[in-house]
Amino acid sequence: GINKIRTKKNELLFAEIEYMQKREMELQNDNMFLRNKIAENERAQQQMNMLPPTTEYEV
pTM above the 0.85 mark? Predict the structure, then answer.
């Protein structure tokens, strides 16, 4: 009786741990992707700041 309950509880805990580990990996991958996007945007912004200002003429 109690052994069966403990076994089932352990199975559920292990399944949840496995799910959480997969979720952690997904979040780490998303985090890396977003960090790269931020770095890319910052580089583009720096390049824009280094361009000579253009003169705009009003018509």
Answer: no
